[in-house]
Design goal:
three-stranded mixed sheet, two-stranded antiparallel sheet, CBS domain-containing protein, CBS_dom_sf, 6 helices, Diverse_CBS-Domain
């Protein structure tokens, strides 16, 4: 399987969407809904300081009936962000996501954020690889 750097190269929308720790949770959730995404990177300048996911919202805001307007992203974001390198394999990333129950993995190279992978990105990649393998095997069987 390819390294995740290759997967990032072929993503349809590779624009990173981020907020600051001072953004209200309401603004962040509205941004996720507008962009059709499940997480936001939390940045202070060029430095990633956390990630906010739909799960964070449900588990740390909605479940406790906290005000999304009165709560900042910095109060509820995940700060111990699991990251991967562009050279890490897709299989490794899928296993990491499964083991840690993650849906999004920031990709960091030399301390710099270079992308964000979702479980959907990885599944799509695996399906494409499987389809290609099937086509090659069918051609081989037919003697082409």
């Amino acid at each position: 399987m390819k390294p995740v750097g290759e997967v990032l190269r072929y993503k349809a929308d590779s624009a990173l969407v981020s907020v600051t720790p001072m953004t209200t949770v309401l603004e962040a959730v509205m941004l996720m809904a507008e962009k059709g995404i499940g997480s936001l990177l939390v940045m202070e300048g060029e430095k990633m300081v956390g990630i906010l996911s739909e799960r964070d919202y449900v588990r740390r805001v909605a479940l406790f009936e906290r005000s999304a307007l009165g709560t900042t992203v910095g109060e509820v974001m995940t700060v111990d962000v699991v990251t991967v390198s562009p050279t890490d394999g897709t299989q490794y990333c899928m296993q990491l996501m499964t083991d840690k129950r993650l849906r999004h993995l920031p990709v960091v190279e030399n301390g710099e954020l270079v992308g964000l992978l979702s479980i959907g990105d990885l599944v799509k990649h695996v399906i494409q690889e499987q389809e290609s393998l099937i086509k090659h095997l069918e051609s081989y069987i037919r003697g082409e």
